[in-house]
């Protein structure tokens, strides 16, 4: 039987073998996912076909991005179904149509800014939009910054530096916004989400998280909720410690946890377990799609085990179907 995660109004059934790909195709790591206005699922992955498009039942529709993207990392979709594809391998953000036409490129492909220079970009990670359509970019692995751009890609301002104090970052890994213009930043290795106003002023932070990696704002209005994908332990010394993830946490707009899905007994490929949640999206019915970088993570979590073929093929994409009360 498929596993059921969560409780009360936050109960989800794991959909087994969700992605139905053409023969011989593999997703490998799924860095991020997005869902458009027609509930089509965009799977930004590190396989030979970087953008795989599925319907909500997991049936293959098309792919694009072959030869364009270097290393998939972040994916955001706007109200007009434009895709913002963050490529940390060539240090760019590309705005694309749903059939892959590039409308805007921010950053110079294959030319990173100097390491920790604060200039965009050095392995940028994700994007989010302000209510006015301004583009926020988290940056990333070789920087400790958030950059704010006009809708046509002109830099407005940047903030952040390496460190552990408020407004400082240790791998700024993901970013989200809400209808009021607040900016939420997954500060992964500082084990927190920091909250800023639209001009980069630090407001507060959410703690009691373990390596927050994925960050998805759900719903509009003044009471959004957020789904946070948390990575499990990354060190040999705590690899087998329970209750550290990988898992999903659902929090309210103040960061208060209202549900937690999985993670009590560590990583795995069994139904109801996660490997390395890296990207999250919801569809119109409240079902959750989870992209995982299980291939990259495998030797960290399972150094003495061979990786099953399913991990490389399709297991790095999961669908959790909401169970009505």
From TrEMBL:
UniProt cross-references to SUPFAM superfamilies, sorted A to Z: Calcium-dependent phosphotriesterase
InterPro entries attached to this UniProt entry: 6-blade_b-propeller_TolB-like, NHL_repeat
NHL repeat placement: 128-152, 160-199
Family annotation (Pfam families): NHL (PF01436)
Keywords recorded for this protein, A-Z: Glycoprotein, Repeat, Signal
Record bears the keyword Signal: yes
Protein name in UniProt: NHL repeat-containing protein
Organism (species): Bradyrhizobium campsiandrae
């Amino acid at each position: 039987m498929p596993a059921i995660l969560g409780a009360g109004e936050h109960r989800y059934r794991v959909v087994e073998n969700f992605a139905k790909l053409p023969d011989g195709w593999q997703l490998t790591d799924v860095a991020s996912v997005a869902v458009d206005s027609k509930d089509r699922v965009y799977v930004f992955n590190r396989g030979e076909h970087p953008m795989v498009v599925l319907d909500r039942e997991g049936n293959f529709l098309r792919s694009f991005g072959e030869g364009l993207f270097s290393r998939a990392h972040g994916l955001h979709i706007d109200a007009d179904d434009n895709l913002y594809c963050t490529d940390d391998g060539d240090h760019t953000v590309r705005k694309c149509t749903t059939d892959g036409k590039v409308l805007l490129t921010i950053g110079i492909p294959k030319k990173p800014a100097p390491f920790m220079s604060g200039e965009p970009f050095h392995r940028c990670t994700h994007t989010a939009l302000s209510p006015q359509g301004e583009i926020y970019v988290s940056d990333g692995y070789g920087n400790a910054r958030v950059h704010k751009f006009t809708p046509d890609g002109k830099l407005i301002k940047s903030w952040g530096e390496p460190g552990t104090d408020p407004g400082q970052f240790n791998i700024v890994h993901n970013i989200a916004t809400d209808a009021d213009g607040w900016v939420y930043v997954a500060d992964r290795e500082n084990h927190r989400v920091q909250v800023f106003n639209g001009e980069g002023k630090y407001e507060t932070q959410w703690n009691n998280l373990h390596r927050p990696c994925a960050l998805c704002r759900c719903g509009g209005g003044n009471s959004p909720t957020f789904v946070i994908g948390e990575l499990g332990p990354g060190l040999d010394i705590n690899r087998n410690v329970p209750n550290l993830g990988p898992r999903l946490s659902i929090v309210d707009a103040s960061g208060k946890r209202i549900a937690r899905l999985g993670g009590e007994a560590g990583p795995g490929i069994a139904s109801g377990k996660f490997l390395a949640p890296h990207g999250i999206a919801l569809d119109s019915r409240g079902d959750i799609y989870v992209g995982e970088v299980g291939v990259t993570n495998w030797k960290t979590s399972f150094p003495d085990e061979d990786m099953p073929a399913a991990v490389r093929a399709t297991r790095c994409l999961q669908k959790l179907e909401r169970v009505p009360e």
